């Protein structure tokens, strides 16, 4: 934030409409004075994010996410503050650009540095004579020089100590080397974990290298791939391969394609299908699903064409449906994976598959029909029961009816009978959902004292009025609750510096202070009326002052009880009397 003047930030913020920016990411619906949308920052099923056109801020009443237009873009795009300013300015058509330095994380910086250095070493290795055989292997797999460079593909040579020695020479601590998983310790001491493998770097959502996948290319081991073990910055459940490259193309096309393997993604990307990401062979997690939800409205799953790929597709569908995504599915013939299919049929052939995907229920029909004998009543019964469970979980009435007709034709069961069965299954599903809702652990509402409320309400109106700030500055010497005290001081300081106050610009001012942003979220989520009377503000101030007098009086009484000197006791007593007079 130090790279851009606050005045420039405020100018950009005041020349854009938060409704326009946020609605370019998620659908917003007007309701009263505000707009509402499904919050992208948690597993939201009902529109719980409120966006105020008047205040130019958003607040989620469920997860507490709060901020202005820059904060939304930062969190949604997973970019730095300067980058968010550039994005907002560009979307608004403003002639403004700030040079952004590569933001380095403050925590676990040493791990990021280790991975970055290793990535450069591996990429250098593959371009030496030692990398000739690896290059030939990649060439045999039709991986081009351009793809090698684009995806940072490298080589860990046959020597087991190159990385270890290099990291030591760069003064990395041994504990950090071991923590990274790049270096291991055995009976021979510290050694590189990767050797004689083609190295595929893995990036986080912002494009920083956080791990590797090392692939054999001689075929001399059962372990085809060795992935970096989980570290503080490498967690498979949080990462999707190629996300940082694909997000721009996915949002532009409003479609994202999900594959399993890295080579599948590289192949598709290399032929110009760039809105593609990979699961790296792991099951989709809730975190993955929420990341995918931010990318595009339409999601296409294209996993391997074998039965394992079908099973992985079913698992992925389940997780995506949990966050209200109904994906489409592409299945490839002859058990082929996307890499093989594109090499055989080219971009055009694969694009034709993408242009004609299956809907979810058609895929589930084919999945549950697999290996079923429709001359066997038990198989037919199991098939129908499985499909009733699946249909009961979707709300699309048209899709349900069309699917029921297909089940009726296949099973030779009466359509009306199937409708009744579905109705019964839907009731069961709803009962289970109600039970789960009852069993959800609800955080107990913390009851606030009148003194805490007075501070909270005073800060709320300080964000709206220079008049209230002036009253705080003149009459409040000490705010008893630390978090409100610090926030009030920052509001006061902002006003003294810029001679105005509004929530949107103040949020920019404190956006790099996580704790203070949490407090501002608490304040802005209050359902208080917009207008106030001077009597109300005076009452808040009086309540705060009464609390301070009460606390100080109790402190002095304790001090007097412990004091043995009569003169000093009398002095303390007179101070207590003076406090009582102030409070009257």
Distance between the termini: 47 Å
- How much strand content do the residues show? 5-15%
Q: How many β strands by DSSP?
A: 15
Strand order of the largest sheet: 1-2-3-4-5
Number of discrete domains: 5
Biggest beta-sheet profile: 5 strands, antiparallel
Number of separate helices: 25
Helix content: 40-55%
Determine Rg (CA atoms, Å): 31 Å
Secondary structure class reads alpha+beta
- Runs in which pLDDT lies below 50 for 5 or more consecutive residues are 101-106, 437-443
The shape, in one word, is globular
Mean pLDDT: 89
Structure description:
The radius of gyration is 31 Å and the shape is globular. The model is unreliable at 101-106 and 437-443 (pLDDT under 50). The protein contains 25 helices and 15 strands. It folds into 5 domains: 6-91, DNA Primase, Chain A, CATH 3.90.580; 109-234, DNA primase DNAg catalytic core, N-terminal domain; 238-358, Dna Topoisomerase Vi A Subunit, Chain: A, domain 2; 368-439, no CATH class; 450-583. By secondary structure, it is an alpha+beta fold. The strands form 4 sheets. It has a 5-stranded antiparallel sheet. A 4-stranded antiparallel sheet has the order 6-9-10-11, covered by helices on one side.
């Amino acid at each position: 934030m130090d790279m851009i003047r606050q005045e420039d930030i405020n100018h950009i913020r005041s020349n854009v409409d938060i409704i326009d920016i946020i609605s370019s990411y998620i659908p917003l619906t007007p309701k009263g004075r505000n707009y509402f949308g499904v919050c992208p920052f948690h597993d939201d099923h009902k529109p719980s994010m409120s966006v105020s056109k008047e205040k130019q801020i958003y607040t989620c009443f469920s997860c507490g996410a709060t901020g202005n237009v820059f904060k939304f873009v930062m969190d949604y795009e997973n970019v730095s503050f300067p980058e968010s300013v550039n994005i907002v300015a560009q979307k608004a058509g403003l002639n403004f650009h700030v040079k952004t330095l590569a933001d380095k994380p403050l925590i676990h910086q040493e791990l990021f540095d280790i991975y970055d250095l290793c990535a450069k070493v591996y990429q250098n290795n593959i371009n030496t004579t030692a990398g000739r055989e690896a290059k030939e292997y990649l060439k045999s797999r039709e991986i081009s020089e351009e793809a090698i460079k684009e995806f940072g593909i490298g080589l860990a040579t046959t020597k087991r100590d190159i990385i270890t020695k290099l990291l030591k020479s760069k003064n990395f601590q041994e504990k950090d080397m071991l923590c990274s998983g790049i270096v291991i310790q055995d009976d021979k001491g510290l050694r590189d974990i990767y050797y004689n493998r083609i190295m595929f770097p893995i990036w986080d959502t912002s494009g920083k290298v956080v791990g590797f996948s090392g692939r054999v290319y001689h075929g001399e081991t059962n372990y085809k791939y060795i992935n970096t073990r989980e570290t503080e910055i490498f967690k498979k459940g949080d990462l999707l391969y190629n996300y940082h490259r694909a997000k721009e193309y996915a949002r532009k096309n409003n479609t994202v394609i999900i594959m399993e393997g890295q080579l599948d993604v590289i192949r598709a990307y290399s032929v110009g299908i760039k809105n593609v990401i990979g699961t790296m062979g792991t099951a989709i997690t809730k975190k993955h699903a929420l990341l995918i939800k931010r990318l595009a409205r339409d999601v296409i799953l294209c996993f391997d064409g074998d039965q394992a790929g079908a099973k992985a597709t079913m698992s992925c569908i389940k997780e995506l449906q949990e966050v209200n995504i109904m994906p489409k599915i592409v299945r490839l013939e002859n058990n082929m994976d996307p890499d093989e299919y594109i090499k055989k049929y080219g971009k055009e052939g694969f694009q034709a598959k993408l242009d004609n995907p299956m809907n979810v229920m058609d895929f589930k029909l084919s999945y549950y029909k697999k290996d079923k004998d429709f001359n066997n009543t038990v198989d037919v019964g199991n098939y129908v029961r499985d499909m009733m469970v699946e249909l009961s979980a979707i709300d699309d009435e048209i899709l349900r009816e069309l699917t029921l007709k297909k089940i009726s034709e296949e099973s030779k069961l009466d359509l009306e009978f199937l409708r009744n069965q579905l109705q019964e299954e839907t009731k069961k599903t709803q009962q289970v959902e109600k039970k789960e809702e009852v069993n959800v652990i609800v955080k107990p509402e913390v009851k606030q004292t009148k003194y805490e409320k007075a501070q909270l309400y005073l800060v709320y109106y300080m964000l709206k009025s220079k008049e209230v700030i002036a009253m705080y500055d003149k009459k409040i010497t000490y705010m008893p609750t630390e978090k409100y005290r610090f926030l009030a001081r920052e509001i006061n300081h902002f006003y003294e510096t810029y001679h105005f106050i509004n929530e949107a610009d103040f949020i920019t001012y404190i956006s790099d202070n996580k704790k203070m942003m949490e407090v501002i979220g608490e304040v802005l989520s209050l359902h208080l009326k917009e207008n106030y009377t001077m009597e109300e503000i005076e009452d808040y101030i009086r309540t705060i002052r009464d609390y301070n007098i009460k606390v100080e009086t109790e402190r002095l009484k304790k001090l007097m009880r412990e004091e043995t000197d009569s003169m000093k006791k009398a002095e303390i007593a007179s101070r207590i009397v003076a406090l009582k007079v102030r409070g009257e």
